[in-house]
Each structure stands twice: as structure tokens, then as C-alpha cells.
Amino acid sequence: MASFQPRTKDSSARELVSRVMSPRIAVIASQGATELCQANHLPSVVDLFKPFGEKIDGRISVTVLGSMGLPSVIDNFTLRFTETDQVEEPDQKTAQKWLAEVVREAAHGFTDPFMIKSREQVTHDYLNAPPERVFPWYSRYRDLFFSTGGVSDHETFEHPVACVIAISSLSPDPINEIHHLSNMSTPPIVFEKTFMDPALLKYYVLIHDCSKGNIDSAMETLEKMRRTLGLHCSILKINSVDPNNTTLPKDRNAKYWTRSVAQSKLMAMGQVGKDGSTITNRSSLSSINSTTASGTLVDIASQRSSTSSPVYSSSGNDSPTFSQNPIFAQLGNDDEDGTFDHEPLSLPPTENQSLALDMLLHPEKVAEPYGCCLSDDDISGITQLLKEMLAQSIVPYMERNIAHWNEQVAASRKGIAGRFRRYFGSGSKNPALQQSPTAGPNGGVIYHHASPEAQMRKLADWAFMLRDYKFALSVYETVKKDFTADKAWKYYGGAQEMIGLCHLMSPQPLGSKNDADHYFESAVNSYIHKAKSPFFASRATLLCYELFKQRNMFRDAPITLTRMTADSSDLRNGLFLEQAAHCYLKLPRPQVRKYAFHMIMAGHRFNKADQKEHAYRCYAAASLVYDSKGWALVDDHISCALGRQSYQLGKSEEVLDHYKKLLRESRQSPQQQAVYMKEFLSVYRDYTNKIEADPLRETFPEFPLPVVLGSTARIMLSTSQSTHENSEAWIELEGGTRNSSNSNGGRTVSAVGEHVLAAVDIKNPLQIPLILTDVILGCEHSTSTTTFTVPVDPAEEAHLALYDQQSPTFEGKVAFSAFDCDRIDRVILEPGQTRTLTFEILPKQEGQIKVMGLHCNVEGQVHAYKDIIKKGKRLNTTKEQMMSQVYEEDKSLVILVAPEMPLLDVEFHSSPEMLLSGEVCELSLEIKNRGKKGLKNLTVRMSHPTFFCIGEKKDDGDLGLYNKGESNMATETIQVDNSLQLSATQRILGVVLAPGESIKIPSWLRGEKIGKHNFLFVFSYESEQHDSAMGVRTLRHSVAAQVLPSLKINAFTRPSTKGLNEFILGIETENLQTVPNFEFLQISSMSASWTIEAVDKSDESEEYRSIAPRQTVFTYYRIRKSEQAVAPVVTPERFTAKALEKLVIGQEKLKDVPPPLDLQLCHLSTTGSHINTTSPVLRYFSRASRLGWRQASLTSQFVSIPATIDRRHLFSVYGSNDIDLALFWNIPKMNRRGHHYIIGINLSVQQNPFQPIDPVDELDGENGETETARRALYEQTMRDQAALVQALTMNPHFRDESPVKISMRSEDAVKHNFGQKRLCSTSVKVVIKNCSWNKHIAYTLEMLSSKDPMVPQNPPGVVDNNPHQPSQGSSGSNAAAAAAILDSTNPHMNAHPFFWSGPTFSTGYLEPLAEVEIELVACFTQYGVYDINRWRLAVQVVKALRKKNVATAATNKSSNNKAGGSNGASKLEEDAEKEEEQAMLPPATPQGVGKGFMQMPNLAHYIQVS
């Protein structure tokens, strides 16, 4: 058997181009030859030859002019056989319909094997998959598309190269029959066109029937034909009857012809459709005159045995279409393909054409016994005949013509001389060579076949057929210039196309990838925009794309494919866009989003081409990529397209799935969303009718409307407010109550018979109104108090119960066995509206009720169930929980139903909506017990404790507010808790409140801070029954108020010149209101060491008692050290320093709190009596304000202290030198009263609270630590907690100041007579005080005369930081600087000098809080006013003196006591003597351990001498 195999569909791109551009052979057969073929069920001789001509095995030698005339070998040559009446192109509309049906049929039952979603899924399997596996319709379209071409004026690939005349050996007169076939007077119309060259090679085939004729007679006829017609004659031996009568299947050879026969039938039908008439048994012959050396072809006959009208089968799709649904009929369909004048892409259902298409699409199903009588020798004979014809006749014929045209035409056209010859005439006598091109269609030109341009084009085409690409390229480049000059754009586009193909077909690598694409771009533009030839533009694109693929040029291929989008053929553009999409996946770095984008565009074009399955497939592939991107508009477009395509394909369930994605929040217009909703409801109604289901009883799964906001869903008792906001604040408040909610797991506790409210927020995400009906909660009940044991679906049970209970008398309640639940009849949600639905649940049995979801009917046509999903607290304990988002189970939607319990209801009466800053309003808190048991132990926790004071209900007594005292000046002492804490839980009721009873408790609200505030309260209470299973119950309550500005108060202090323990206080008060006048009632001070008093009587005048609107008033007061104050044993500063030291050392766990502190209260009233600030309400507000300020300041000052450390064990509320002020006022005309606090005035010397404690201090010897042991402990601490120590010691919020204050006392005026005594002297006392509570200092005081400079050259006790600099008087610049300092420090220069008498330089040592007085004498020589405040004080922090001796004596005493006896007594006597001796010695020089300070006066002290 012959080795011939049918051509495979996955051949290389080079073979594809060679096959498409191969020589075309026309065939004319006699009636006897045709009948011999029909005996083998083959329609014609063309069908007999065609499959074997597609791939002629073996090597053919060809002379290649591009290689200097050297021979070359061609493998697998191709010959295309055709009937003479099929040389022209078929009807393009009919051809497009064939192509559409081929593409449509290939989509049936196709499943994407790869489902690309991301770059990771572009696997090796996908990249190496054959096209038949990924997109089989493209390969079928491409092959059929190339077969629909015909002769064209601009190229000769479709022009026949030769003509085969076939006769039967049984013909009685073969030679006459050949002449008869050649002598017909009517030539084919196509050969009458000027661009067709009638000169063809004639090849004669004698077909011999071996089963009927005599072979010898046949050979004689062949010899006679060769003598008469020449050597281009051959014999073909075949059988019309099975020679061996074998039992082999009749269709054993059908595989060779099935596809080609079907294609031939379609081409014949296309020709009939183009002619517009049906022709059967066509036998008209045509004559073509030839003057070539091969002989004269008189007539060429065109005969077909059987043809039929152009018919086509329908798609057979019985699914509903949009036009069948009234909703979709209103919308209409996308635009149809403009190529077919909006006709559907389906052919008339004719049997023959349907059969031909079925044969072409499914050749494996065809049962026709093609070649049933042919043996293996017959098939081998056919292949041998074609090989001989090619090698001995066709190729030599083409080579001779190529050489001739190259010598006669091409060579003379090259170079400059050839260009001049073209324009100025060649002098040839051949009229054809001198003819000008004629006008063609679409404004183009047509060259005569004998013109130089046409012959050069034919020369290049034939060289290309023989695969001489280099020579063909040179000819194409030469002739395209002529085409450009003549504006022959179709010819120009064809030349550009072939130049690009020559580059890509050449085995050499491309110089630049853009070179080839440039030629194809120019060709496509010329074909489409100028020549109006979309077929050739598509052919150029396909060939370029295939060659790009073979060269892995996938980055350039999409540009080539998308260039055809200007074409009007939607089917072709859909295919090209799909191929472009796949090219993006085959890049080195796949571009998945570009792939999806091009798939969307391909789906759109497929939809316009009525390729519904392909459109659905493309949109589905794009949806896989965009599904997780969150691009709403893209998702909506894809979902809408998929929904409509699914509807037309009859996929009802998929339609619903796609359309429900459109019913969500998006940026679509309201009109578009209304269309989506209308379409969905129509489709759902059709679907439920189809499955015979009730749409209001059956739940639509995962319906997107409405949106249920599960995170805000909450359960409330019927007495609760809607307090779902500020959930974190509520949780923080409830965390410190006595609430047993922790044991209940966050469940809401209710009792049998108590109404519980369930609030659910729902949202309409659309921009159109949404109507909901029959809205009810889906709840689950369990008799267990720990788990849910109900096995049924509670949500569905609720819905069915609601559905079954509806009746004309339905009142809105749905009754269940364990509870009753509300039903909302109708809810209208406006566009984008969020609405809270409140349902009342009445428990009837003990156990648990869990709110699961929400049932509703949407637009009265769809029943939806929405789960209420609420996440619990995020878990962040283990590593797995930290790496992922894990939440604990939320039980806030669970109602724990307990036996009968008390039920609290609270209400604030007379609560103002607005109040002034500092204003105090009296309220009334009403407590009600709506439960069935007694209520006790009522407590409350507040979010704003500085705003509210709630009293405790007692049998008698008065809480008091602004109570009046008896005298104008009042000073009293109270003891306060100095620990840094405010009772978080306040007890407000100590008695049992019986069921149904109510009580009112006085409360006060003070405007502490300006702004809008929402005050949160958590009340907790218990049942009077001790064995109650519920324990503590809580109730949330909130009150809102706005605080407006009233007074703006600023306070400042400065030292007084009258003493070290006095300060002047100034208060600036501005009335921010525009109407009322504020009246001052009283100012009160609270301090442990200081009191306040008026500076003079002017402060009591009316001018300072009232402030008009927008007016500012300054008032001044004197602050003195209180003589009644008693210093505590452990001051707050000492406690803080000791606590910080313990924190740093880590010696023990901090557990001490500051001891109570005595505060001095001083009141200055502008009326006849003062306000008693010790009343419970005012004491509460005062402590709450002070505590809030203190906690805020400590938080900002000590950020380095870990949050786990309880600050109550480190700091106190009040300091020893702190003073707070309370300013009381009223507005008489508006009956408003209030007070402002001025908090945080500190009159001590500023220093860091982290201070070292004296190691020998008698108050710090608890553990018997020595200085050496403490130093060693500090060293170890510095190594372990260096960061904490560094942060405490270098705290930027504290700056150490000099602990020493100095004051000068003298007479203000001195009377002296200089006539009697020339020198006036007066006594001056200088008081130096150490204001530090823990530092020991050494000082050096130098009194300066009027001539001495204030700035020293090197101050004593202060180390010079830059010893290399010259001294003050060493240079002029330093002197100028000293003078500047002198002027700035002492602006009041004396007109006359004065001097000091006696010692002017003194040193000393001061213990903490100690002071010393130095007496001096100032001397004056003239009358005048003198500033004697001229001194310079150097201060150095030093170690303590002499205490070490005392400590040593104590230690020795202790050791002697242990020893006992007379030796101990004698030792004590010796120590006492040593102590007396040391006391007689001069004081030791203190050793500096801290910073040094230099002080100079900044105010003047004047003495008038007169």
C-alpha cells in the first residue's frame, strides 16, 4: 500500500503558507472519466486528485535564481486542483455563512480544559497544548477560510498554472474527444477578464479502467496521444469494480476523500449562489486560445455531475430567545454583523448543503464509501502520477517562464535606467506592453496580464510558489514602487503582504521584529481602507499570525490581530481577539488581565455575530480572572452578558446566578439597575413556572437583597435604649461591673414573659427603591442553657410557619411553641438607605433563643433568607491566631431565658440638651422595677464621671449644693484621699425596690468640657432572691448634651517682693457669651500648704464682680504660705521618689498607696456668705476634675513607664505645693449657676520627681541599707533597666531649677543729713532659703557695689565648660558680651555709686527646707534713689554633712548593745566624746554631687535716701 497519509491539521506555519500559496491546477474531464470516478462514489476527477495533491511526498529539484541559479530541493510540494468553473471566488455571503456555522458547530459540547484564573495557572501543559484542544474552531475556520478564495486581479496565486484534460481509455476516439473538449466556442467568463492570462500548460491524463478495458489498447492510445499532443501525457490505472471481491469494508478508503469532497461540494454551492441560479448537470465548455509552445487549448469544459441550490441547516437550538420573553423583546439584541446586512448567520435548511457541512465538520460520521473499488496499487498510481506531473511538467514549465520573464521584463525594470524606461517608454512593439492600466472597482486600477507590472507580479508569485523567497523578495520590492506611483493600492497592499511573508518564510533570522509587522500593517491598511478588500486583509493577518507564532513572537502577534477590528465582520474579529488574548498568556511573563480584557471584547463581537455559545465561553473565561479583583463595572458587564447569553442558550439556573450578581451596590445608573431587576424578576418567574414551584414559599439561595449588616445587630431588653453605637466604650464600661455576662458568654439575659427587642440594620445597595414584605426573624430555641440541640432548620421553620399562618385576619404576630415574634408587613427602602428594623420577641419557655437570620419577600416575587453573621472578638493569643484572622464565637445574638427576674428601667428627668461650660444642672434619676421580683444592690458606671454626680438615696440627710456658710472669710482643713483613683462603680441604691415600684434619685450634671457629648451609663443590679440563676443584670443607658462656651479663664503667678513665701496670682476672665452678664460669687483655694487672700479692697468693688458680654476682667490675689499647715510625715514628693526608686530597682512588688493629705480650704466671697465647698457634690466634682487632669498629665509625662504598672502605687493626686482654685459664678437673669476649676498651679521649685533618697535619712532606713549597698544596687539596676532609668532621669517634661530663693529686706526710705555726716549707712538683711524637700546645697553669696560687674569672670562653684577660651576681660568682644549681659540683668543703673560695708562674700550649707539670714550694711554718699539689689549667688547641690557620723554612732550603738557588758558602756562614752570634739571643729567642705546654678537679681530693690 502506498505511504500516503492525509494532511494533519497541526502542520507548521511554513507548510501552511506553502500550501495556501501553491500552484493551482484546473481540470477538464470527459463524461467517461467522470463516470469512472463516480463508480468509486467520487463526484469528479478533481475530487479524485485533490487529497493527494495537498501533500506530494518526495523531493523536487528546483532551480533557484536567488542562489545564483543553483538547484534546490523542495520537500512535500502541494498542488491545488479545481474545476474550471470554480476558479472564481465563491459568493462571499454564502462563504461567511459556512464559516459562521463551522465556528458555531465547534463550540457544541466544548469544555475549557484549563480555566485560567491567574498567572500561576498558565502551566506547561497549557503552553504545549495543540490548538485543537484549546480552540478547535479557529483551526477549522482558518482552513475553510483559505479555501474560499478565488482569482484576483492583483496576484496570480489563484490563477491556474496548468490545465489537466482527463479522458477515459474506453473512449472510441480519444484524440477527437480531446480536440472536442478543446474546440468549444464559449470560453469561461473568468478568462475573458484582462488580468487573466490564457496561456496555460496542458497536461493530458488517460484514465484506464482495469476491470473493463484492455491495457494494451490503452497503452497504444497513450502512445498515439504523445505523438499527437506532445510528451505531457500520462496514464492512470484505476478500477471501477473491486478486483478481488474482498470482504473489506466499503469505506476503507473514505478517510482520504471525506473532507475534500465535502469542501468541494460547498465550493460548488458557493459558485451557484454567486450566479444566482441553480444549474444541474452543467456540461457547457469553454475555449481558451493559447499561443504558447505547449499547444492550443481550444475549449475548456466545465462539468459537474451533481450540484444543488445553496442550502444550509439551522443551528438546531431549541432554547428560548430574548424575543420570546416580553422583557427581553423590549430590550432588543445587539447589532448583527454588518457584513450580512443584519441577516442571521444561518443558511436555509436544505438537505444537500446540511449534509455537506456535516461531512466537513464530522468526517468520522460519514458513511459514504469513497474510493470503494480502488486498490492500494490504484492509490499508489495516483500519487505517482501527480509526482511525475509535478517533476516532469509543472516545475520545468514554471522555471522556464520565470527565467524568461526575469530576462525580458524584470531585469530591464531594475535600476535607474529601468525607472526611466517605465516613464518615457520602452520602444516595444507589443501593444499589450504599452497598455495603460484600466480603472477597477473602489477607485483602483487593473493591469493587463501582459503588462510589465502584471508579469513582474506573476514572476514573483511563481518564484514564491517554488520557494525562492530571496528572489521573490527582490521582485516584490521592485514592482511595489510602480504600484505606488500608479496608486494601485490593492496591488501595493499585495506586494507589501508578500514582502512580509518573504521575510518570515526566509530561514534567516529577522533583522528587526518590527520590519515584518510594518509590511503587514501597510498591507492591511491598504486592503481595508483603500482597496476595500477585507478578505485579503484577513488572509494577510492569518498568515502573519501563524508565522509569528512559529517564531514565538507573541508580543507582536496581538497588535497584528487587533489591527483587524476595523473590519465589519464580527465573527472574524471575535476569533482574532480571542487569539490575541491567548497570545498574552504565552508571553514570558503572562499578562492575565490583558487576556481577560481581550476575551471580553471577543465575547462582545461573538455576540454580535450570533455566536452565543462562543460569547458565553469568552465572558465566562474573563469572569474567572476578574472575579476576585473587585472591579464593579467590569463584573457587572460580564454578569449581564453571561446572564443574557445563558438565557438564550436555555441555561435557566445559570441565568439566575449571573443576574443576582447584578443586584448589588455598584456604580450603574438607576435606569440600568431597574432594567436588571426587571429582567431578573421575569426570568425567575419563568423559572418557577417551569419547575412548578411557589416563589414565595421556596427560598432563593444566597439572594443578595437586602444587605443585612450583621455587625450592628443587637439584642436589647424592652427597657433599653438603642445603644449600639460606641460598642468599644460599652464593652469597657461593662468590663468593670459586677455583671455575670462573662459567665453567660456575652448573651443577653431575659426572663420568661419579658419582651426582648432585636434590632437589625438592613441596607438597600441599589439606586432604585426596594420593597420588602412579610419580614420576620428566623430564630432557634433550645431548652439547654449551654448548647443548641434543635436538629431542624429553624430559619426555614420560621418562614413556613409565617407562610402557613397568613390569612386575611393576620395581625402581624407569629406564634411558636417557645416564643412569639413580630412580623413587619411592608418595608420600603429608598435608594442607598440603611434602616433599622426592630422585632419584639416574647419568650415563653426557659432556655436559649438565638437569632439566626431574616426572612422577607423582595418585590412580592422572590422569597429571600439572609443569615445574620456577627463576628466575635478577634483572637490574638497563639501564633496561628496572630498569623491569620480568627474570631471567637459571638453570642451577643443569643437570649438566655431565665425564670422571673427584676427588670430595671431608668430615666433622667430635666436633662438639658444644652448647658454652659462649668454650669451645674440638677437632674432627677427615676428608677423603675418593671420585673416580677425585687431589685437590690443597684450600682452604676459612667463614661464621663467628671460630668455627672449621682447621689445615693437615703432616708434622711441632704447632699447639698452651694450651701451657704456664715462669714465672708472662711478657712478650714479637710483630709482627702490622695490615692490616684476614683471609684469606678458608684452605689446609688441600698434598699430593695419592689416590683412595680419607682424611686427618684437626685443627680447633677456639670459642663466640664466644651463640645457635644454622649454620656454612657451601665447600671447593674441583682434579684432579691439569692438563689437566682441569672446573677447580676445590666442595663445600658445614654444621655446626650452639648456644652457651650461660657468663660475663658487664664491664671498666672509671680513671686512677691514682700517675702519668700508669697506669690501674686492674676486671673484673666473673658465672657464669651453675647447676652448674659456673669457675676462672681466666690473664689476658693484648695492646697496643702498655701492660702489665698485679696490684694486690696478694690477687688470687692462692683467693677470686678460682674463681667459684661465680650468683656475681659483682670483680678489679683495674694497667695501665702499657710501658717496652719502641718507637714506630713511622708510628703507626696517623697512617696513618689521612693516608689519610682523601687520601680527601677525592682526590689519588691509595688503595693503602697499615698497616705491621706490635709488640704487647706480658703474662700473669698463677694457676698455676705461663702459657698461650702465641702458638700458631697462639690467635693465629688472637685476630686473628679483634679483626678482627670492628673491622670492626663501623668500619661503624657511618663510614657516610659510600662502600662502594666499601676500608677496608683507611684503617684499621688495632690502635691505639697499644689494649689487648685474654684471660681463660682451665676447669671441672675437666666437662673444659671456654675463654677470653673483652675487646676495644676504648682508653687514649688521645679525638679524631676525621680530623685535619689538620702541613704542616711531617718525616714528611709527600713531595710537597713548602707550607702555602699544602695550604690551597688543602683549599678545593677543600670545594667538591667538602663532604658527606664535613662527615660526617668532625662525626662524632657521636667527641668531642674535652682532650689534656692533669696530675698532682701530693708527700709524703703532713709532720712539722713549729709551736712552733719558725710556717709549714710542702713541695715540690709538677705534671706537665703533652700526650697527643695530633699537636696542639700552649698552656696556662695557675693554682694556687689554699683561699680562691680554683675557677670563674673569665673563664677565660684560653677565649672567652666570651656577652659580653653579666654577670660571675660581678656578681649573686647567678651567685654562687649559682658556689658550686654550687665544691661539685661540690671536695667536700672544707679546715678550715684554706693558700696557695702563689712564682709561682702559669704558661704554656707543648707539642708532641705532650711533658710539662713545674713545682715549687711549699705553705705551711700549722696541723696537719691538706689537699687541695692546687686548680688551674685552660686549654688551647688552637695552631699549631706554630719549625718554619716550620727549613722555611724547608731551602728556602733547597736553593735555594742549586742555585745553587752561594761565594754559597751565605755564604748558609748568614747563615741560621745568624739562627737563633741567633731562638733568643735570647723565645718567640712561639702562635696558637690549635682548641678551648679548661678543666680542674679532680675528685679530692683530701691532705697530712697533723703
The number of helical segments is 37
Ends distance: 152 Å
Radius of gyration: 56 Å
Q: How would the global form be characterised?
A: elongated
Mean pLDDT: 78
Helix share, percent: 25-40%
How would you sum up the major sheet? 11 strands, mixed
Pairing-aware structural class of the strands and helices? alpha+beta
Strand content: 15-25%
Instruction: Give the low-confidence spans.
Output: 1-10, 276-350, 739-743, 789-794, 806-810, 955-959, 1258-1269, 1355-1385, 1443-1461
- E-strand count: 54
Task: Explain what this protein looks like in three dimensions.
With 1506 residues, this protein is α+β, with helices and mostly antiparallel strands. The strands form 13 sheets. Strands 12, 13, 14, 15, 16, 17, 18, 19, 20, 21 and 24 form an 11-stranded mixed beta sheet that branches. Strands 30, 37, 39, 41, 42 and 43 form a 6-stranded antiparallel beta sheet that branches. Strand 5, helix 8 (174-182) and strand 6 (201-209) form a beta-alpha-beta unit. The N terminus is likely disordered.
Please name the defining characteristics of this protein.
single chain, about 1500 residues, alpha+beta, 11-stranded mixed β-sheet, 6-stranded antiparallel β-sheet, 37 helices, 54 strands, about 35% helix, disordered N terminus
Task: Indicate the topology.
Layout: H1 13-20, E1 24-29, H2 31-38, H3 45-53, E2 56-64, E3 70-77, E4 80-83, H4 92-106, H5 124-127, H6 131-134, H7 136-146, E5 160-168, H8 174-182, E6 201-209, H9 215-229, E7 233-238, H10 254-275, E8 285-286, E9 300-301, H11 326-331, H12 351-361, H13 376-413, H14 415-424, E10 438-439, E11 445-446, H15 452-465, H16 469-485, H17 489-505, H18 513-530, H19 534-550, H20 557-562, H21 570-585, H22 592-608, H23 612-626, H24 632-648, H25 652-660, H26 670-691, E12 699-700, E13 707-717, H27 727-735, E14 748-751, E15 756-763, E16 770-782, H28 794-805, E17 813-815, E18 819-829, E19 834-843, E20 847-858, E21 862-867, E22 874-875, H29 879-883, E23 886-887, E24 894-898, E25 904-909, E26 914-916, E27 920-929, E28 935-942, E29 948-950, E30 969-976, E31 986-989, E32 998-1006, E33 1011-1023, E34 1032-1044, E35 1047-1055, E36 1062-1071, E37 1078-1087, E38 1090-1094, H30 1102-1105, E39 1106-1107, E40 1112-1121, H31 1132-1145, E41 1157-1165, H32 1176-1197, E42 1218-1227, E43 1232-1242, H33 1267-1280, H34 1282-1289, E44 1300-1305, E45 1309-1310, E46 1320-1330, ...
Parallel strand pairs: 1-4, 1-5, 5-6, 6-7, 12-21, 14-24, 26-34, 45-54
Antiparallel strand pairs: 2-3, 8-9, 10-11, 13-15, 15-19, 16-18, 16-20, 17-18, 18-19, 20-21, 20-24, 22-23, 25-27, 27-32, 28-31, 28-33, 29-32, 30-41, 33-34, 35-36, 36-40, 37-39, 37-41, 37-42, 38-40, 42-43, 44-46, 46-50, 47-49, 47-52, 48-50, 51-54, 52-53
